[in-house]
Specification:
41% strand; globular; two-stranded antiparallel sheet
Length: 154
Amino acid sequence: MKNVVVKMSLLAVMMIIAASVSANAQTLQYRLTANIPFDFSVAGEKLPAGKYWINRAQQGNGDMVIQISSVDGHSNVTRLTIPVFADKPAKTSSLVFNRYGDEYFLSKIWPIGGSTGRELTKSRAERELARKANDSGIAAVNAPDVKTVTIQAN
């Protein structure tokens, strides 16, 4: 009986360790790097095209607050995010942008292996462009061209 309890305890510890290693790969604990070829906005702040780091704002507090920093150190934005879920784990890390005409807005961040990503709330400017696109319809001359653009991150 004692051997069974010891074996079960050891098995439980191994499963906890395996689960925590797997969970870390699916979060923003590790910094993502992406080369973004266009100017974009994050929750109301405009950022220039360039190479960016995306990671947790504070390593011990989970993925709720993220930090987006240009590699050259000129741009730095910290924002609150909400979780979003996918049916299948992401095969690559990626950043998803909403494009309205020639304006890009960072929308979602997907870490590799994760079925949970992070979504940023829409800024006032993005909500206004989305409203114009919905009100005008696709055939209208003044309606912005709406698309989703995905950039792979490492």
